[in-house]
Amino acid sequence: MRLAAKLILIFLVAVVLLTAANTYVAIEGQNASFEREQTEYAQRVGQSIESELLLTWDQQGDAAVDALLLGEHSSNQLVQIRFISLETEAPGEKQPVASPESLSHVARGQIVSVMVNGQEGAAWLHTYYPVISSDKGRAALEFSRPAGELQQQNRWAIYRAMATIVVLAIVGVGLVMYAGVTLVGRPLDRLIEKTQRIAAGDFADPLAIAGNGELSQLARALNDMCEQLTQHQETIRQESATRIATLEQLRHADRLKTVGRLAAGIAHELGTPLNVVAGRAGLIAAGKLSETETRESAKTIKAEANRITLIVRQLLDFARQSRPQRADENVSLLTDRTISLLQPLAEKKGVAITADDAERIVASIDSSQIQQVLTNIIMNAIQATPDGGQIAISIQRKTRRSPEQTEGDVADYVRIDVQDNGSGIDEQTREQLFEPFFTTKDVGEGTGLGLSIAFGIVQEHGGWIDVASQPGDGACFSIYLPIQPTAVETTHAR
Ligand code: ADP
């Protein structure tokens, strides 16, 4: 229900209650004064004739008393007086109009008034003045006055009250409606519209509500709030812009650092074999080498050239990192294929590879890219594991969120664990593990590109790589790949 309607309802109820209470009090007052008037009259008349009446009654009987009353008061038309008996065995014409129960106090000497409805519906007020004779018994003077006029007055009072209610309702409802709509309804509608605009983020156009009442105060408070919100919004916008600019600078610095490292790595990685090639080529060109030495030098040049080719190929792989060409692939079979490729190398090193790939999980992946990831990681494990060591590979399905997600839907991933019992990885190495050209291996053994390539490929697939390791206690690389391309992947790919 709208506020104006509620106000009108409250007003109407108040008008009805107040008018009804006022009318009730007025009617009660009229009744009381009517009764008081008659009681006083009965007392006055009763006291003035009581002794004479008792004497007459005791000496001459009831008929003489009636005659006495007739003679004394016949002129009074308004109030009729009767001498009645309070004894139960009295004849009918001597019985009181009021019921004997209501007259018990009269027998004890009190004046009592009783309103009785007559036969035609008209009410009469009967007042009883006690007359007690030790000889004749208990009797009373019955003063009867018609109360029709009083009832008429009461009826008028009720009609007046009803008319007042109707007039007040019409005038009041009109006034309340006018005041409710102009003073409350319209300003409230504007306040509601303003709060809706605030909720939608529009803090413009301050609200003007005239006056100094609560609603105009509320409007002013809303305007102040909007001003503060606008200021906060501006502060946040400026802070965000500063943060974005700082982030951009950091990214730029980071890119420069990476490029620097990359250049240093390339220079170092290619410099060494190129020096060897140049040195050996110089010796051959000088013509001072024997035939065997020349052949040996040529072999060294070929080996170093191969190494340069490998580095350049890996560099190309790293730089290319194209979007995966996905197809449904059985990850267990792919892992098995990769293991059999690397098996001879592992055997040569005296390392056993076991695979727990009972669960056949099919995922949408670029099989050649993921094979490269597996090769790089398993190769590292073989290199880190001493003779007699073991590498355990297991494949499981995992339903979870990515490490970057704190909320949102979970997704299905295939997790490939490559666990070795080799040298393990210390904290410092772990921080640089995926950086290009970071290697702890001797020159010629590692290029430092394997894990950064693996990291890039897995990220392009929408997955990630976890590393768990304690120095001296082996390392476990866990590759997470989404079974289906996910929204996460798109985020990563960007
Ligand atoms: P590379 O193998 O050519 O050195 P990677 O990027 O593949 O380059 O590896 C970087 C470094 O990470 C390695 O030099 C090695 O120190 C460390 N590493 C990688 N895998 C393992 C492993 N399974 N155990 C111990 N160290 C490892």
Automatic annotation (TrEMBL):
Chief location of this protein within or outside the cell: membrane
All copies of domain HAMP, residue ranges: 182-234
InterPro entries: HAMP_dom (IPR003660), HATPase_C_sf (IPR036890), HATPase_dom (IPR003594), His_kinase_dom (IPR005467), HisK_dim/P_dom (IPR003661), HisK_dim/P_sf (IPR036097), Sig_transdc_His_kin-like_C (IPR004358)
Membrane-crossing residue ranges in chain numbering: 161-184
Domain annotation Histidine kinase: ranges: 265-485
Phosphoprotein among keywords: yes
A cellular component term, taken from the record's GO annotations: membrane
Annotated catalysed reactions: ATP + protein L-histidine = ADP + protein N-phospho-L-histidine
Pfam families on file: HAMP, HATPase_c, HisKA
Keyword Transferase: yes
CDD domains: HAMP, HisKA
PROSITE patterns associated with the record: HAMP, HIS_KIN
Subcellular location: Membrane
SUPFAM superfamilies: ATPase domain of HSP90 chaperone/DNA topoisomerase II/histidine kinase, HAMP domain-like, Homodimeric domain of signal transducing histidine kinase
Keywords in alphabetical order: ATP-binding, Kinase, Membrane, Nucleotide-binding, Phosphoprotein, Transferase, Transmembrane, Transmembrane helix, Two-component regulatory system
EC number of this enzyme: 2.7.13.3
PANTHER family, per the entry: PEROXIDE STRESS-ACTIVATED HISTIDINE KINASE MAK3, SENSOR HISTIDINE KINASE
Protein name per its UniProtKB record: histidine kinase
